[in-house]
Write a structure and sequence with these properties.
- The chain is α+β, with helices and mostly antiparallel strands and 284 residues long.
- It has one domain: Hotdog Thioesterase (Thiol Ester Dehydrase, Chain A), CATH 3.10.129.
- Helices cover 17% and strands 33% of the residues.
- Strand 9 and strand 10 form a beta hairpin.
- The termini are far apart.
- The mean pLDDT is 96.
Length: 284
């Protein structure tokens, strides 16, 4: 059955998300935060909130829209994410997210669904905007338009070596921990389910988990560990990552931003490309 393309441009219902410092800490642990990053793990220091936490409150309204397309959620793959931070996220509170399908696009064997979301705090202040690129495997070829192409605001200087490299091993339980922040797709937990949808090696790591590792790595390398300085970041998820593999983030600084890519060390394979981040200068 073809995807319901008439949903494009129609906002979903506002979705409320209440959270405490425990949710913030659980997310930080899920994307690999270590004890030396105590500001993000201890309520006695706030805790600070990683800006990529903005993907958590939008997950439920996004999933609702995806389920209404009629696509098989078991064949769904997250292929990219962009986050723009407009205000610091509080360590606890209530957020309201409104998600909208921007469009459903034809990629021959795949169908891409772009979902934009706006998240506000309880006072109505806009705190973050996100765009998720989701792929339904086997749903392409319906004669629709191809996905839009957007130029990255930061591009890698040709021939230049990386400004920084951050390497970090994920744990074998990384996906099991990250899924507690809301994405409980069995693809990330159940070996039999993973094999049934084509992943013979077993459950894969969430793209958004690798995304969170990347954000932490940029903060460590370019913001003296202060991730709250990050203002916008994006990544395209190109290859699966299996829990226990080592992620290597490489960055090429250009002004107050960096072009990025992430490799898996064990396979020397790029798993995130088309990535970038921008941050506020220290004087702001």
């Amino acid at each position: 059955m073809p995807l319901e393309r008439s949903l494009a441009g129609k906002p979903g219902a506002p979705a409320s998300f209440e959270y405490t410092w425990k949710d913030v800490v659980l997310y930080a642990l899920g994307v690999g935060a270590r004890r030396e990053e105590l500001d993000y793990l201890y309520e006695g220091r706030g805790p600070r909130v990683l800006p990529s936490f903005a993907v958590v409150p939008k997950f439920a309204p996004m999933l609702d829209l995806l389920s209404r397309t009629g696509g098989d959620l078991g064949m769904l793959v997250h292929s990219g994410e962009r986050v723009t931070v407009h205000a610091p996220l509080a360590p606890q509170g209530k957020l309201v997210t409104r998600a909208t399908i921007r469009g459903i696009y034809d990629m021959r064997k795949l169908a891409q669904v772009l979902i934009d979301a706006r998240t506000e705090d309880a006072s109505g202040l806009l705190v973050a905007e996100t765009t998720s690129a989701m792929l339904f495997r086997g749903e392409g070829g319906f004669g629709g338009e191809p996905p839009p192409r957007e130029r990255a605001p930061v591009e890698r200087p040709e021939g230049a070596p990386p400004t920084f490299t951050v390497e970090e091993k994920t744990s074998p339980e990384q996906a099991l921990l990250y899924r507690l922040s809301g994405d409980r797709n069995p693809l990330h937990a159940d070996p039999e389910f993973a094999r049934s949808v084509g992943f013979e090696q077993g459950p894969i790591l969430h793209g958004l988990c690798s995304f969170g590792f990347m954000v932490r790595h940029v903060a460590k390398a370019m913001c003296a560990g202060d991730a709250t300085r990050l203002r916008a970041f994006e990544a395209q998820f190109k290859r699966p990552v299996w829990p226990g593999e080592t992620l290597v983030t490489e960055g090429w600084q250009v002004g107050d931003g960096a072009a990025l890519r992430v490799k898996v060390k064990e396979r020397d394979e790029v798993v995130i490309s088309g990535a970038w981040a921008m941050w506020a200068p220290l004087s702001s």
